[in-house]
Design brief:
Blueprint lengths: L14 E4 L2 E4 L16 H18 L3 H13 L10 E3 L2 E6 L8 E6 L6 E5 H5 L6 E7 L5 E7 L6 E7 L5 E15 L5 E7 L5 E8 L8 E5 L6 E6 L5 E7 L4 E7 L8 E2 L9 E6 L2 E6 L7 E6 L7 E4 L6 E7 L4 E7 L2 E7 L7 E2 L8 E4 L9 E7 L6 E6 L5 E6 L11 E9 L5 E9 L10 E4 L17 H4 L4 E5 L9 H5 L7 H16 L8 E6 L1 H12 L4 E7 L5 H4 L8 H8 L6 H10 L13 E6 L8 H13 L6 E6 L10 H18 L5
């Protein structure tokens, strides 16, 4: 059989100069000049050759992939259904038909009556390689459904409308949306975000049903290229919220939901570094903000003077306040204490808050869907690394928890066979980094076990210690699975995020490497028996750690990895770049930022050395991490690496940032990753 050799990418002269530094980039040609259209034959041929190489390398492991896929599929209830939730005169829920890749969105009258299919995703996805629902919104009179979808992974959503009385689609169609949309009171005005030519939401528009989209009214326009706008609604449904911001600053406006033509009311003018979001109750604004502390606090204001804030709940050094939701008779504060989720019920008249208690030492919990304003129970979700997703109602007065549903695992699952723990690893600067670990009981910490280590560490996104049916395929084969809660996320508060961004960005990478070393010292594995994975900014993390500590990893999976950081952060035409400068720094205007980013940017720091086996994925239509970033990175790695380890690039030619969209297609990609790790650790059955 003829062996397929890895593709060797052409090198073409290309260089850029900034701050007196010239950088050669011989693989810059991989960016199609017509992007976001990608039709350059040389580019497509190269990506197809990489895909052919991936298929050839994985073909001998097809049986293992199929075994893993069937295991994963067997843990999914094919005719899964969510717990119905009341909203107005209807009960709403979602369900999968057996064998379906996509959901049906359902409702039925509270008073009794037949089930109605609001939207059948599978039907809408017919004949399409990709389908992703962007959102659903039902008009105040419960008669019109607005919904949006992306059909190629480019995150270019089109909003459509359906008459729920007749089931017929209305002619109104709004292309070019991104983000949420909300109805004003009544059933004729929809507020939505519209993108510009750089695919940034810079306008909030109001559409009147039946009117030409070209006549839609401009409600708000964002002039700062680094900010993106969006639209939502207070839980009281009294006000539409127009919010704008970047990764460190926010600004909000209010519009009475029953007077959609009124001019937006500014809550407080933007100020660099000030973040806030707004709720409302009986004419009082509730403002969740970091004005006084990175732990956040809660303040109130009147509608007459919305920018004058009065403290209500002061910052707490031990409690990181992540959100506030107002209800008719109480309000809920969510947050984290020592990195663990907490939910508190507060009275509007004061008094000590009541905290909902959860049973395990490590878990993930929070409010679930609670669409109604006046309620006596809260719908909540709970899970841990050993406890499947659990939906419960909590009585607001007694705090009694009533379990409504526990995630069903048809092939069987016994939680008593697994153990989870939370350990602290000391990083090189003395900071203690928490790690959540799960394994099957009997796992021996003698250094011989395989360890899967996952990390992200950016944008203040915390990785919860939640449940996954997928990882059981590894746990049952003897793996320990660990989540490193590294700086850059806000797992331990906003300061934890700030300590991993901009000039402190390298803390994120060091934390992950030091976490791996610490777990090795504790006996979870030995160098070369640790596999690591991350996606997007977590893919950047993978790129850095294989440059800096290649000897630790038995294999690495980098999904849609943000690896060409220096070039991307200098390209103002890309959708996300200007809004990303507060996270990474602006290398265009700031030489120090240029030098720092260049010092860790994975693509720029590829060197002549041995690298671990690598699986890299990309999406041709990905607007977040463009396909050429992983393609260029793989080409440069192939050129410079000194080892014989496998290096594969798989590009989804009809998908974007999230990979394939169908639930089973997505599972098969997970099976491919796990099979790759088992293959590289010599654990192929």
């Amino acid at each position: 059989m003829t062996e397929i050799k890895p593709p060797v990418a052409a090198k073409k002269p290309h260089s850029t100069t900034r701050h007196g530094i010239t950088i050669d980039d011989p693989y810059a040609w991989m960016r199609d000049p017509g992007y976001p259209t990608v039709d350059d034959k040389e580019v497509l041929d190269h990506l197809k050759a990489e895909n052919a190489y991936f298929e050839a390398q994985m073909k001998p492991h097809a049986a293992l992939i199929e075994t893993l896929f069937q295991e994963m599929k067997g843990r999914i209830k094919e005719d899964e259904s969510s717990v119905p939730q009341k909203d107005g005169n209807w009960l709403y829920w979602r369900k999968f038909e057996k064998g379906a890749q996509y959901k049906q969105w359902m409702r039925k009258p509270v008073a009794g009556g037949a089930d109605e299919v609001l939207l059948d995703e599978a039907k809408e996805a017919e004949g399409k390689e990709y389908f992703r629902l962007g959102g659903l919104a039902i008009s105040d009179d419960e008669t019109i459904l607005a919904w949006s979808a992306d059909t190629d992974g480019s995150e270019r959503f089109t909003i459509r409308f359906r008459d729920l009385k007749t089931g017929k689609d209305l002619p109104d169609t709004i292309p070019g949306s991104l983000g949420g949309f909300v109805w004003a009171k009544g059933a004729n005005t929809l507020f939505y975000g519209l993108v510009n030519e750089n695919w940034r939401v810079d306008r909030v528009m109001a559409h009147k049903l039946g009117a030409p989209v070209a006549d839609d009214r401009l409600v708000f326009e964002e002039k700062d290229q680094g900010f993106q706008a969006g639209v939502g609604m207070t839980h009281s449904e009294r006000f539409i919220v127009v919010a704008t911001g970047d990764n460190e600053t926010s600004e909000a406006y209010l519009i009475p939901a029953d007077q959609p033509d009124e001019a937006p009311l500014l809550v407080r003018e933007r100020k660099k570094g000030l973040e806030y979001d707004v709720e409302e109750h009986d004419g009082t604004l509730f403002i969740h903000t970091n004005e006084d502390s990175t732990q956040f606090s809660l303040k109130t204001a009147s509608l007459a003077t919305p920018g004058t804030w009065t403290p209500l709940i002061a910052p707490n050094p031990d409690f990181y306040m992540t959100g506030v939701t107002t209800f008719a008779d109480f309000f809920v504060v969510e947050g984290r204490e020592r990195g663990l989720d907490q939910v508190e019920i507060h009275s509007y008249t004061g008094g000590k808050p009541r905290r909902i208690v959860f049973p395990e030492a490590s878990y993930s919990a929070g409010l679930d869907e609670n669409p109604e304003y006046k309620v006596s129970t809260l719908r909540m979700s709970y899970e841990s690394m050993v406890t499947p997703d659990t939906v419960m109602d909590v009585d607001v007065v007694s705090l009694k928890q009533t379990v409504l549903k526990v995630q069903e695992i048809p092939s069987g699952y016994d939680a008593s066979q697994y153990a989870t723990e939370r350990v602290d690893i000391t990083a090189r600067d003395g900071t203690k980094v928490p790690v959540s670990v799960v394994y099957k009981k009997g796992f021996r910490k003698d250094g011989n076990g395989p360890l899967y280590l996952y990390g992200y560490g950016a944008y203040g996104y915390a990785i919860p210690p939640g449940f996954s049916t997928l990882r059981l395929s590894l746990l049952d084969r003897g793996f320990a699975y660990a989540i490193a809660h590294i700086r850059g996320g806000d797992d331990l508060g906003q300061q934890w995020q700030l300590d991993g961004k901009l000039t402190k960005r390298t803390n994120t990478f060091h934390d992950f490497i030091d976490t791996a070393k610490g777990l090795i010292e504790l006996g979870y594995a030995k160098p070369g028996r640790v596999v690591a994975a991350g996606g997007s900014a977590g893919g950047e993390l993978m790129g850095v750690v294989i440059n800096e500590a290649p000897e630790l990893w038995g294999a690495v999976a980098a999904h849609v990895p943000f690896v060409d950081v220096l070039n991307t952060m200098q390209d103002e035409s890309l959708p996300l770049t200007p809004g990303e400068w507060p996270e990474w720094g602006n290398p265009i205007t700031d030489k120090a930022a240029f030098d720092l980013i260049r010092s860790y940017s994975p693509y720029d720091q590829v060197k002549t050395q041995a690298y671990p086996p690598l699986l890299v994925t990309a999406g041709l239509n990905d607007p977040r991490v463009t396909y050429w970033e992983p393609a260029k990175w793989v080409a440069k790695l192939r050129e410079l690496k000194t080892d014989q380890n496998v290096l594969m690039l798989k590009t989804n030619m009809g998908a974007g940032h999230g990979g394939k969209s169908g639930r089973f297609d997505s599972l098969r990609e997970d099976a491919e990753e796990f099979a790759f790790f088992l293959w590289q650790l010599g654990m192929v059955e």
